[in-house]
Design brief:
The chain is α+β, with helices and mostly antiparallel strands. The chain has one domain. It contains 7 helices and 7 strands. The longest helix has 19 residues.
């Protein structure tokens, strides 16, 4: 119950902030996006997630022992998640080495029964919303996005940037066709929104 109240208050705060800064927020986010993509020319191809992905309820997905919840999920975003193209480790790897995450998950699992493991998010669980394409920064083979990231026990979202690359993309391809053969090639956390 406490988590639901916290989440609702976060979403209300986000709506209020968005309405107050409607004219300047988008411009600021675009500026931050340009800076993030321009300053970091090092791209890497994140591999597809190979573990088990379970849709636990609606827009919540379980990746081994990590969870990701997406609000306002589009079919394309759903495809990225369900097919292991975008997954929690892409976000958390810069904060926690994967070995530490696995060790913490094993330690947490010893103190939980089986029902709790499947329904109780762990420390590296994520909530994202507003996963939107930044058309002005995208090309035929690269689609760039911004999203809001809510970490567990955090009040304000963090603006993040992600790049999807499909080397075989053509001008005629729909977005749905593009995401079927794309990979994440860039992810960076930006500013915390207040």
């Amino acid at each position: 119950m406490k988590n639901k109240i916290l989440l609702i208050s976060q979403l209300l705060l986000l709506i209020i902030v968005k309405s107050l800064n409607a004219q300047t927020q988008g411009d600021q986010e675009l500026k931050w996006a340009k800076e993030a993509f321009d300053k970091n020319n090092q791209r890497r191809e994140y591999p597809k997630f190979t573990g088990q992905i379970i849709n636990t309820e609606g827009s919540t997905y379980k990746f081994n022992e990590s969870f990701i919840t997406v609000y306002e999920i589009s079919d394309e975003t759903k495809y990225l998640i369900e097919n292991g193209i975008f997954y929690p480790s892409i976000v958390t790897e810069n904060d926690f080495p994967l070995d530490i995450i696995r060790i913490n998950m094993k330690l947490n699992m010893k103190n939980q029964n089986k029902d709790e493991i499947t329904s109780q998010p762990s420390k590296d669980s994520l909530i994202i919303s507003d996963f939107e394409c930044i058309e002005s920064l995208s090309t035929i083979t690269q689609k760039r996005f911004r999203l809001f990231l809510y970490l567990k026990d955090s009040i304000n979202p963090q603006l993040c940037f992600i790049e999807l690359t499909n080397k075989d993309a053509t001008k005629e391809m729909t977005y749905k066709e593009f995401v079927k053969n794309c990979r994440v090639t860039f992810f960076e956390k930006g500013s915390i929104l207040i």
